[in-house]
Amino acid sequence: MSAPHHTETIFQPALEQIERGELEALQLERLKTTVADCYTKIPFYTKLMDEAGVVPDDIRGLDDLVKLPFTTKQDMRAAYPFNMFALDPHDPAAGVQRIHASSGTTGVATVVGHTQADLDYWGDTFARGIAEAGGGPGSILQIAYGYGLFTGGLGAHEGGIRMGCTILPMSSGNTKRQVQMMHDMKVDILACTPSYALLIADTAIEMGYDPASEFAISGCVLGAEPCSDNMRKEIERKLGALVVDIYGLSEVMGPGVSCECQYQDGLHVAEDQFIIEIIDPQTLQPVPDGTYGEVVFTTLVKECCPLIRYRTRDISRIIPGDCECGRTLRRMDRIQGRTDDMLILRGVNVFPSQIEQVAKQFSELSGYYQLIIERPEESDVVTLEVEPVPAFEFDEIRRIEDLQRRIAAELKSNLQIKVNVKLVEPKTITRSEGKAVRVIDRREEGKNVRK
Amino acid sequence: MVKQITVFLENSTGRLASMCRTLALADVSMQAMTVADTTDYGVARIIADNPDAAIAALTDDGYRAKLVDVCAVEVPDKSGGLLPLLTAFDAAGVNVEYAYCFASGRELAVDILRVDDNEAAAKIIEQAGFKALRSSDLVTC
């Protein structure tokens, strides 16, 4: 890591280092309240739970969570605008303070309301992230997330308030001005998206600064989009600051649902406020810790828009074991992709991002991969096509075979299925934007041929 | 030592012909070619009169091609001609990765040997009384 290790303080030690048994008791108490609220105040949940044949009194232990039905994004869209609210936004006594909504670029927006208590809880989670990035009371916090219906800007803002930071509410855009203020005001912590943090760093360098040595910035809380390891290292190097990844989604709350600490080995989930489950998106059954699956959240303290078992469609896993930072809140891995991308190969759930993770470890390979799935007989045949880098010594067949064997062994150990590895000539894999692994599924074609 | 051109090829119809076309258009003349094939790909190894031009043309056309130093040794074109050299290699612990040969038409054959230790091999070739060829020798043979 290029940035120095901070001596981070823990913002809410009583909650972030809570003993497991105590946490579970707290979760159960809060879960009971949430379920009762949902059942009595939100007709959508009354109907959903009646159909599932479950009533609030059935929740006697945390194990009973699985009796509850799931909530989906479609449910939230269908509830537009206020049908998932436990409180009436027009009722002055209800105290709904603010509304956030997803962009709705792929359909109807999902709308979420927040009371003052909701915003305070949210602010606490983001403030944990500020502390994890090395910030504290009196830190100057530059917020370059967009302010508005998007949860980034105002979510970070709530965090700054709860922490007692001096907030610089820049919103996004006007990058030269961002750089100037960051320099002149000796900003300590930056909160924005990773791509914007990189743009700010590059703009500063273009303007003739060396932010790593000339700026006071020591930490960044970055979220709302994926950040690759290389991108993170580049931001850390250019700004001379520690980057922590913060996760959240507007339906559940916003940034702060989970956040990395300085060890950058998974994101500590705010388990005092949310129950995290990882499920198999096909069977909907929970998977063991360490196994990838769909992330599901149940909110525990939300007044206006509580959610029961919300399916995020994000793929991650629980990282088993304790973190060096001393927080007892469990860690989820960084998001590996979307459930929409999931493949079922010989009955095993595989995410293209897992394959990419394995392939990335081999310096002999370029960054382009293509996965071909065929079913010549009854069983899937999976082939990963990879392009070697120009420096790869292919003159000796044994080197090629050795490389293929090592990649295949690593894939087998990570995915639990056999994958054939095939080295191909340069530029034979079509370059596609965004995703590094192209998937060509020929299984249906095979069926048609047999017919 | 001579420069050998090694080309990584997909195992698909016409790929070898296409590679040869690229070399022909670059006016490269091949003296020897061997293709090691597996199910999925082939590795073509070529001795040609102008290796640098060959690499440039192949790379331009999108091939993965590189130059590899290999030993070229003149050996008598008769039974057991190569044996003393390989015996000497064995004794010295020099490992041969692959080898192929072509006849030069003068009662002498040329053996191409890819070894794991070029320096040691060069000494052994000389000590064993063989003539190591350079690229310029091959052009005229």
Write a concise synopsis of the structure shown.
The complex is a heterodimer of chains A (451) and B (141). Chain A contains 13 helices and 21 strands.
Query: What is the arithmetic mean of pLDDT of chain A?
Result: 92
Strand line-up across the major sheet of chain A: 4-3-5-6-7-8-9-14-13
Biggest interface and its residues per chain?
A-B, 16 and 18 residues
Q: How many helical stretches of chain A? A: 13
Shape of chain B: globular
CATH fold-level name of the largest domain in chain A: Rossmann fold
User: Outline of chain A, from the CA principal axes?
Assistant: globular
Return Rg of chain B in Å: 16 Å
Mean pLDDT of chain B: 90
Identify the CATH homologous superfamily of the largest domain in chain B. ACT domain
Give me the count of strands of chain B. 7
- The tally of beta strands of chain A, per DSSP, is 21
Report on the structure:
- Chain A contains 13 helices and 21 strands.
- The longest helix of chain A is centred in the first third of the chain and has 22 residues, at about 20-40.
- In chain A, helix 2 (about 20-40) crosses helix 3 (about 45-50).
- Chain A has two domains: about 15-25 and about 60-340, ANL, N-terminal domain (Rossmann fold); about 345-450, GMP Synthetase, Chain A, domain 3.
- In chain A, about 30% of the residues lie in helices and about 20% in strands.
- In chain A, strands 4-3-5-6-7-8-9-14-13 form a nine-stranded mixed beta sheet, sandwiched between helices. In chain A, strands 10-11-12-15 form a four-stranded antiparallel beta sheet. Chain A has a four-stranded mixed beta sheet with strand order 20-19-18-21.
- In chain B, about 35% of the residues lie in helices and about 40% in strands.
- Chain B has helices at about 15-25, 50-60, 85-90, 120-125, 135-140, and strands at about 1-10, 30-35, 40-50, 65-75, 95-105, 110-115, 130.
- In chain B, strands 1, 2, 3, 4, 5, 6 and 7 form a seven-stranded antiparallel beta sheet that branches.
- The chains are: A alpha/beta (about 450), B alpha+beta (about 140).
- The interface between A and B is medium-sized, with 16 and 18 residues.
